[in-house]
Amino acid sequence: MPSLYPRPAHASRRGPLATPAEVAEYLGVPVKTLYQWKYRGIGPNVHKVGRHLRYRWTEVDAWLNAQAAYDLAV
């Protein structure tokens, strides 16, 4: 079943794992923000591969979709 939301053109070329720099660019935030979110436990799920941090694109997209579910109107 096709997605209801358009995917960016580069999404079809991305591999299963992403670097912090790739995720930061995708989300439009500085890499430092991703590290702060990791420390505070509020960002997308991150995995250590050896001594490197990697993100699964599926988890980044799921986290991003969950953020859109919040109603900011009070």
UniProtKB/TrEMBL annotation:
Top-level lineage group: Bacteria
Pfam families documented for this protein: HTH_17
Domain Helix-turn-helix per the UniProt entry, residue ranges: 19-67
InterPro entries, A to Z: DNA-bd_dom_put_sf (IPR009061), HTH_17 (IPR041657), SinI_DNA-bd (IPR010093), WH-like_DNA-bd_sf (IPR036388)
SUPFAM superfamilies tied to this protein: Putative DNA-binding domain (SSF46955)
Coiled coil: none
Protein name, UniProt field: Helix-turn-helix transcriptional regulator
Organism: Streptomyces ardesiacus
Lineage: Bacteria, Bacillati, Actinomycetota, Actinomycetes, Kitasatosporales
